[in-house]
Structures are given as C-alpha cells and as structure tokens.
Design goal:
Layout (H helix, E strand, L loop, with lengths): L1 H33 L1 H9 L74 E2 L12 H5 L4 E9 L10 E4 L3 H13 L4 E2 L1 E3 L2 E3 L1 E9 L3
Antiparallel strand pairs: 1-4, 2-3, 2-7, 5-6
Length: 208
Amino acid sequence: MAALVHDSQFLTRRGAVLVAIIALHIFIGWALATGLARRAIEVLAPPIQTQIVEEVKKEEAPPPPPPPQFERPPVEIPPPDVTINMPAEENTTAIRVTQTVAKAAPAPVVAAKPGTSVKFGKGFPNSEDFYPDASRRLEEQGAVTVHVCVGPDGKLTEEPTVAKSVNARLDGAAVKLAKAGSGKYVPATEDGKSISQCINFNVKFQLR
C-alpha cells in the first residue's frame, strides 16, 4: 500500500512539470506571434543610431597685398660749366726768333771684351795620381764634385770643399787633387782683366 502512495505522488509531480513546460512553449509561441519578444529586445538593446557630421572647411584668409613700390624720382645733375680759354691768334708779320739747341754727338760705344771662367792650366794634376789604393781594391768608382775659389793669380783663395760626395776615401782624394792644382788654374777674366771666381768641377775616379 505504501508503494502505491509513493507512485501516485511521483506521477503528480511529473505531470506538473510537464504542464509547466507545455505552458512555457505556448507562451513563447504567443510572444513570437504578437511581437512581444521583439519589443523586449528593442527595450534591452536600443538600435544603433548613426549621425553624419559634415566637416566644415575653414576658408583660408587671402594673402596680404604686396607693399607698394615707390619709384625714386630721377636725380638730374646739371652739366658742369667748363670754360676753356683759347689763346687768340695774332695776325702779325713780325719775325719770331726760335732757339735751336745743338745736340752733342753720342759717345762711341766700346765693345766690352767677353769674360772667361776659371780653366785648368798646363800640368794640372790627374785623378789617376790621387786614386786611393783601398778604393782600387774595393773597386770603388765615381765622380766627386769639388767647390774651389781661384784668385787672379791662379791660386786658391780658400780651402776646397766637396759639393757632391761619393764616399769618404774618394772625397778626400778629390780635395787633395784640388789643392795640388793651386797655381795651375787659369783665372777668370772680365773686360780683359783677371778676377777672382768660384767654380764647381768634377773629379772622376774610374778603374781601367
């Protein structure tokens, strides 16, 4: 008997739930038919409104007018008053005396005698006589440039110097040769007279 009472209560609850579900479906169908659901959606979510805003363009102000150009009036410079005093011509038959100065005859030009430079006289020493023995053995060769100053008597006025060197041995031999030639130089001349003059000359050392 207790089992029967329990089954009847279960059926009653199940029937109530079924009735509630059916009633819910009927309400939804009625709401769709009458447009109630659409109005509810519109209330919950209002439609999106779009506003078109026209952009107002600002009119740019016109540029200012250029400054007026003033023309300077031309400056008139009056021409200078120039007065030229011209001597008046005299019509006269008087005889005028003119003085003439006699020019002196030019002095005769005497041709200057050409000058000469220092030269080497007879008996001037030879580089073979001053060739160092060590340089011969080592086969050292070359041309040493020597600077000498010769007086009017053909002798050296100062010690010779080396203007262009080869090596110490050959340089010393060249200086000895230049000293040995003192008195055997032919002095330079100018206007036919002997003068002092400095020259450079080469002393060549070459093996034969």
